[in-house]
Design a protein that fits this description.
The chain is mainly α. The protein folds into three domains: 3-126, no CATH class; 150-227; 232-343. The protein is built from 14 helices and six strands. The longest helix is centred in the last third of the chain and has 28 residues, at 266-293. The N and C termini lie far apart (43 Å).
Amino acid sequence: MLSTFRLLPTATATAILVALAGCVSTPTATNTDSTASPGASPAATASPAATSGHSGNHGGKPGININTAILSELDKLEAKLGVPALSNKIQASRPYAKVEELVSKNVINQAQFDQIKDLVTIEDIVLTGEAKDVDYMTKLGLMKGHLFVAQELLDQGKPDQAEPHIGHPVEEIYADVEDQLNERKIPAFKDTLIKLQDLVKAGAKDPAQVKAEFTTSMQAVDGAIAALPETQRKDPKFVLQVINGLLDTANSEYGAAVAGGKISAIIEYQDSRGFVMYAEMLYKDIAEQVAKTNPEIDKAIVANMTELKANWPTAIAPPAPVKTVEEVAKLVKSIESDSQKVVKPAS
């Protein structure tokens, strides 16, 4: 999205996750500022609207809150409808008293609304237990994806292109995960991210200082991830859910990047590259375990992941897309389908 819109304030967003196996949505009047009690059961708790017709509950997926969702979430709607800059338009027309105001406020037309009405809500989603942990790691994973791409662009002497990807973690994602950081007693690192962003905005004139601040920022994100138990971070069933969340967001970003057979939104192309890069890194960490118990599934995931990654040959977008939006979506869906056989094996 345009960087000017990225600077708009964001509230706690709805879950980035697409599939949270074994999570049950139940009504609650609580908003996203509420926190789960220490003994909460591992379930995704949703507000009434999230389980009504307007959230759709497709396979247990929570609806996208059009009042609070970060731009990466709104990009899923943009990609589905193929409307350029729709994420920005939705954000600029907030708040919404009801989802139908997407039409009455002339954000989209009725026919377009009919295509997404089961995907959106104005109610918050509260996650607890494992679902909350998956959501937490996925959001931090999105931060890492942004930073990976930023590093590539800095290495290529393109601080102007790197800056949005350093900005997104602090401007877009940090507020969405801040409550969880506080709950988990993670030292705040927003100022660290801002310091790095300011250096790059100024042209990255001191490479050594930029490198040092970049390392500090990445270590802060890694430290936040390390707050999760090591057994959980190494559990294939848990990690595959995070991978699916990252790939789903990458798929949406890529869909928003391509229009008319061309890569028209470079930032979204780069976003999706970073998310796929980190998803592949996470899978490599658990591949040996998956191969021992499900060798055929491991082979399929590795093959599809390798083919998927080939869509982003470099951080600089190629003249023409390597794969179509449909081909990328098919690969992501295949990985998700195979992952689910591990996350939730047939009885």
